[in-house]
Design goal:
By secondary structure, the protein is an alpha/beta fold. The chain has three domains: 182 residues, inorganic pyrophosphatase (n-terminal core) (Alpha-Beta Complex); 105 residues, CBS-domain (Roll), CATH 3.10.580; 114 residues, Roll (Diaminopimelate Epimerase, Chain A, domain 1). The chain is 37% helix and 22% strand. It contains 19 helices and 24 strands. The chain has a six-stranded parallel β-sheet. It has a six-stranded mixed β-sheet with strand order 8-10-11-12-13-9, with helices on both faces. Strand 2, helix 2 and strand 3 form a beta-alpha-beta unit. Helix 1 runs parallel beside helix 11 and helix 12 runs antiparallel to helix 13. It is elongated and about 115 Å long. The two termini are 49 Å apart. The relative contact order is 0.12.
Length: 540
């Protein structure tokens, strides 16, 4: 059973990360197979929480794009370079393919042989050389084994089609030659004495007993063919090792971790329809065709703390969303089939998860209770945010009892650990918790950080504004950074210069400056986002 990825939004915060872990644990207790993931580097606050409760940080998820390993390609379709040409043709018919990857004993790719190339062998190639083994000859000629002194043959192919006297004087048979002949006693005797390696008798004739003894004495292998001389000459070509006929020694290949979208784009440029598929060790896995590209398995995902395409993992449109747990406004993510969707107007996703644990009658472990409590305290700013509900307060009370922590004392520890911006680059601070929103034809970017250390940022306001201007250019109409101080119960605001009037209109302010403190504004969801969106929509 394949795993389902559980993850929050990009630029993960404490709720996004801890809710992913908590929901994954719950799902697994209920019999599902899930793994938590993060879409970016976790911040100081979240790292403090995970370390405090001894919870492992989830692995990073780059994207959920469909890879070629998810495509229903022709797995295991390949043949050894020592397969016969007839085997290749038969295998193509069996697999309904027009090309077959050819590999060595270690499954390393040697070539891709196509039906077109096989046809060219019969049209253009000279049929005077044979490189094969005894069993391939039996198979191609529908022959009988008469004498077998060696397994492999490589040499000149000669047909005894002249009169006996002419053949013996003109053919110049050499040691190791392979002779195709009917029931011609003198020709066969001459060939055996000449030291040929293999005698192919047409029409399934029996070899004269005296000649059989002579062949045995000279260790000449003998096989019969059910065909006449003309058809034997054609059929025997099919016994050749395919390695002796390979034309395309550097075919275009793809790897199982390549993305389907890249495969379609590149194959369109190349113009072929069949490609060998390799793994990271360059071992051949099989054949992938253009027609296979429409048959693939999507990756299963569960979204927490977001339901907006712009905030989710790259490739989300190629994945199968099976569930969403969120406490934000509804975004534009759509699904082709009905899914489980739990949305509640609460201050934190973990509050919803607390109710899901209760509904499922699953006991919450101490460490899971701890990170869920931390998530709620983080998202509600120690239960002081206007987004805080009775559900959040009840959940925190219950979870604090399970994990054995005083929620307010722990909360201040957590905020203090995560609020320091010392040593951080301006860009990293802005993108620490940055979210994008579409407002009609406009785009809005809102970043929020919680810190008790705004004084250390004041000397660098010009740098923050320059970076906000740079981010906004050509992408956003408004980009704003709210620096929230829980102790003072308000937020300092920085914005791209062209948005000054938008911020003033949004919060009924006059002649504000960069770094202006707005009291009682601490919630992005309930206070910052709605007010700014209303102004943008009105100005549209």
């Amino acid at each position: 059973m394949k795993s389902t990825y559980v993850f929050g939004h990009r630029n993960p915060d404490t709720d996004s990360v801890c809710s992913s872990i908590s929901l994954s644990y719950l799902k697994n207790q209920m019999g599902d197979v899930t793994v938590p993931r993060v879409l970016g580097h976790i911040n100081k606050e979240t790292q403090f929480v995970l370390n405090y409760f001894g919870v492992k940080e989830p692995e990073y998820l780059n994207n959920v794009k469909v890879q070629l390993r998810n495509v229903n390609y022709h797995k295991g379709v390949m043949l050894s370079e020592y397969a016969s040409l007839k085997e290749v043709i038969d295998y193509m018919q069996e697999q309904s393919c027009t090309a077959i990857p050819i590999v060595d004993q270690k499954r390393h790719l040697k070539s891709l042989i196509t039906l077109k190339e096989i046809a060219m062998v019969f049209i253009e190639e000279a049929k005077d050389h044979l490189y094969t083994n005894y069993d391939h000859l039996l198979h191609s000629l529908k022959g009988r084994e008469i004498l077998r002194f060696q397994e492999e043959f490589e040499g000149r192919l000669v047909a005894g089609s002249y009169q006996s006297q002419t053949f013996m004087t003109e053919s110049s048979l050499q040691k190791g030659d392979i002779l195709i002949v009917g029931d011609r006693y003198k020709v066969i005797e001459h060939a055996i004495h000449a030291g040929i390696s293999l005698l192919v008798i047409t029409h399934d004739f029996d070899l004269d007993p005296e000649l059989l003894k002579l062949a045995q004495k000279n260790k000449v292998s003998v096989i019969t063919s059910q065909f006449d001389t003309y058809n034997t000459c054609n059929q025997i070509t099919l016994s050749n090792y395919v390695k002796s006929l390979l034309l395309n020694l550097n075919p275009s290949v793809f790897h199982e971790l390549d993305y389907l979208s890249d495969f379609l784009e590149e194959s369109s440029r190349i113009g072929h329809t069949n490609y060998p598929l390799l793994n990271k060790r360059n071992e051949c896995l099989g054949l992938i065709r253009i027609t296979d590209a429409s048959h693939y398995e999507k990756k299963n995902v569960i979204l927490v703390d977001h339901n907006n395409l712009e905030q989710s993992v790259p490739g989300i449109d190629e994945a199968r969303i099976v569930e969403i747990i969120d406490h934000h406004n509804l975004g534009k993510i759509g699904t082709n089939v009905p899914i489980n969707f739990r949305s509640m107007p609460v201050g934190c996703t973990s509050t919803i998860l607390y109710h899901l644990y209760e509904e499922a009658h699953v006991k919450i472990p101490k460490e899971i209770a701890g990170i869920m409590m931390a998530s709620i305290l983080s998202d509600t700013l120690l239960l002081k945010s206007p987004t805080t509900t009775d559900f959040d307060q009840k959940a925190v009370k219950a979870l604090s009892q399970i994990c054995g922590e005083d929620d307010q004392a722990f909360g201040y520890q957590m905020l203090k650990a995560g609020s320091s911006v010392e040593g951080m680059e301006v860009e990293d601070i802005i993108y620490q918790d940055f979210k994008s929103y579409k407002v009609g034809t406009s785009s809005l970017g809102i970043s929020q950080i919680v810190t008790m250390d705004f004084e250390s940022m004041k000397d660098h306001i010009t740098q923050y504004v320059e970076k906000l201007n740079e981010i906004a250019k050509g992408t956003y109409e408004t980009v704003v950074l709210f620096i929230t101080d829980v102790v003072q119960n308000g937020s300092y605001v920085l914005y791209n210069e062209s948005s000054k009037h938008i911020i003033e209109d949004s919060f009924d302010l006059e002649e504000i400056q960069e770094g202006y403190f707005i009291p009682n504004v601490v919630s992005r969801k309930k206070q910052m986002l709605p007010k700014i969106m209303e102004v943008l929509e009105r100005n549209a």
